[in-house]
Design brief:
This protein is α/β, with parallel strands linked by helices. The protein contains 10 helices and 10 strands. The strands form 2 sheets. Strands 3-2-1-4-5 form a 5-stranded mixed sheet, sandwiched between helices. The protein has a 5-stranded mixed sheet with strand order 8-7-6-9-10. The chain binds 5'-O-[(R)-(carboxyoxy)(hydroxy)phosphoryl]adenosine and zinc ion. 5'-O-[(R)-(carboxyoxy)(hydroxy)phosphoryl]adenosine binds next to α5 and α6.
């Protein structure tokens, strides 16, 4: 099919996501209606290593991908020939993991002679919101995941401009490292979130604001402050007040994320703030953003929990942007571990 064709908008896209430790397949109609969204998590396998082991992740994707693809098609009760296009996460992510999804997607697209849409993982996280909300522009997205922390301005649909990003650890990565220091298993974010909510006291920790006009983030200093507190307690033989430390860590993270996100919303004249990524499941962050947005009259959107962490439905939602423009990907495409979000924007 030729690029530039104006496509119908009730297409059926089979989407595949294998960028990290979830094997996921979804079928999405018209970029909005999720007919099925199967997610097979490898967390139990990686838990024992305290983080994702890339080689093991790729092998597990190989074992699961065809089974999950078949199951998705069966559950929806369609024939493969009913599909309009195959979407797959092209990057960013672990190269070996991405490749498994990409080979499966290419094979299916070729066999069915339908378009292939290489999709950006972060665009997927942002457009997960479109599965449940009506989006208006301009808008600002706060992307918080295990691998990414970004503020993205969207002047119009599918146009991405990164205005801030982390200079060191991603916020989810900082959560996971802090959780590990507090002896919680991987992924530790939900444990720190729970502990912070239960805490009665709070240990004050620093905030990394960076330059006054910067939308960038830095979490490594904060993470080091937590590790220092843990070590100090150990050396002095004192019992560590884990909940108070978790609460102090979470308060620092949330304060910076919320303040910068709201500043970006006002500076960009955004009509909505879109929260997305695995850390968007954080109850403290959701509550703080909801309060600030309500106080400042900013509509806040966030996907339901199941669509915050990695899943293929969000890839189907983002791929719809390209489908509408008739912008397809050549079968020769490669996995792009450092794929550019801005470069993935739809054509003018
Ligand atoms: O988006 P995601 O599923 O994978 C990436 O693309 O990175 O995000 C996973 C990250 C992990 O670091 C996990 O600890 C974090 O999201 N996370 C949380 C919470 N739930 C998941 N972090 C803080 N609070 C939570 N409730
Ligand atoms: Zn993700």
């Amino acid at each position: 099919m030729r690029a530039g064709t104006c496509m119908t908008t009730n297409e059926l896209i089979l989407a595949i996501e294998t960028s990290c430790d979830e094997t996921s397949v979804s079928i999405v109609r018209g970029g909005r209606e999720v007919l099925v969204n199967l997610v097979s998590s490898q967390i139990e396998t990686h838990e024992q290593f305290g983080g994702v082991v890339p080689e093991i992740a790729s092998r597990q994707h190989v074992e699961s991908i065809t089974i999950i693809m078949e199951q998705a098609v069966r559950e929806v009760g369609i024939e493969l020939r009913d599909l309009s296009a195959i979407a797959v996460t092209q990057g960013p992510g672990l190269v070996g993991s991405l490749l498994v999804g990409i080979v499966a997607a290419k094979t299916l697209a070729m066999a069915l002679d339908i378009p292939l849409i290489g999709t950006h993982h972060i665009a997927g996280h942002i457009y997960a919101n479109q599965l449940v909300h009506e989006l208006v522009y301009p808008s600002v997205a706060l992307v918080v995941s295990g691998g990414h922390t970004e503020l993205v301005a969207l002047e119009r649909e599918g146009q991405f401009r990164i205005i801030g990003r982390t200079r060191d650890d991603a916020v989810g990565e900082a959560y996971d490292k802090v959780a590990r220091a507090l002896q919680f298993p991987y992924p530790g974010g939900p444990h720190v979130d729970r502990l912070a909510a239960e805490a009665e006291d709070e240990i004050e920790l620093p905030r990394a604001w960076l330059e006054p006009d910067s939308y960038d983030f830095s979490f490594s200093g904060l993470k080091s402050a937590v590790l220092a507190a843990v070590n100090q307690a150990k050396m002095k033989g004192q019992e560590l007040n884990k909940p108070a430390l978790a609460r102090g860590f979470q308060a620092s993270v949330i304060d910076v994320l919320v303040t910068k996100a709201l500043r970006a919303v006002h500076a960009e004249g955004a009509r909505q703030l879109l929260l997305c990524g695995g850390v968007a499941a954080n109850r403290g962050l959701r509550a703080a953003l909801a309060d600030r947005c309500a106080a400042e009259g900013v509509p806040l959107l966030a996907p339901p929990m199941a669509l915050c962490s990695d899943n293929a439905a969000m890839i189907g939602a983002a791929a719809h942007l390209k489908w509408k423009q008739g912008e397809f990907t050549a079968l020769e495409m490669k996995a792009e571990p450092s794929f550019s979000l801005e470069g993935w924007s739809v054509r003018d």
